[in-house]
Amino acid sequence: MFGRATISLGIGPHSSIDSVIHALRVYDVGCHFVDVYVDCIAYADDIILLRASLINLQKMIDICSDQGSKLDIQFNPSKSCLFKTKPGYNQLLPNQYIGDEPIFGLINLNT
């Protein structure tokens, strides 16, 4: 089992990312908590993708990137980061990419 994964994608000054959020829901790749589904948290020009594991995290990033391209929204890998939240999970995480560019930011929230 991979550690829980969350990623924050930095985007430019756009007022609406509703279609990006809708695309995530169509693919149903977020987190299921009992009977509640959560795939992301969005505020202003930031979006946080939520996954209980690293499985399909790259798919979520690709969905956002593909949908963003259709809307002329650029996700910036240098302003994006991965949050690791599973206590005791110290393994290296596989690289995640926005397009061909790797996301290097990693914040370890383990306590």
Walkthrough of the structure:
The structure is a single chain. This protein is of the alpha+beta class. The protein has one domain (5-108): Alpha-Beta Plaits (2-Layer Sandwich). Helix content is 22%, strand content 37%. It has 2 helices and 9 strands, in the order E-H-E-E-E-E-H-E-E-E-E. The strands form 3 sheets. It has a 5-stranded mixed β-sheet with strand order 4-5-1-6-9, with helices on one face.
Quaternary class: single chain
- Average pLDDT score: 79
CATH class: Alpha Beta
Largest sheet: 5 strands, mixed
Following the backbone from N to C, one meets helices and strands in this order, namely EHEEEEHEEEE
The CATH topology assignment is Alpha-Beta Plaits
Compute the number of helices. Answer: 2
**3D shape:** globular
Strand content: 35-45%
Which regions are unreliable across 5 or more consecutive residues at pLDDT < 50? 1-6
What Rg, in angstroms, do the CA atoms define? Answer: 13 Å
What's the structural blueprint in terms of helices and strands?
Elements: E1 5-11, H1 18-27, E2 31-33, E3 36-38, E4 40-43, E5 46-51, H2 57-70, E6 75-84, E7 97-98, E8 101-102, E9 105-108
Parallel strand pairs: 6-9
Antiparallel strand pairs: 1-5, 1-6, 2-3, 4-5, 7-8
Helix pairs in contact: 1-2
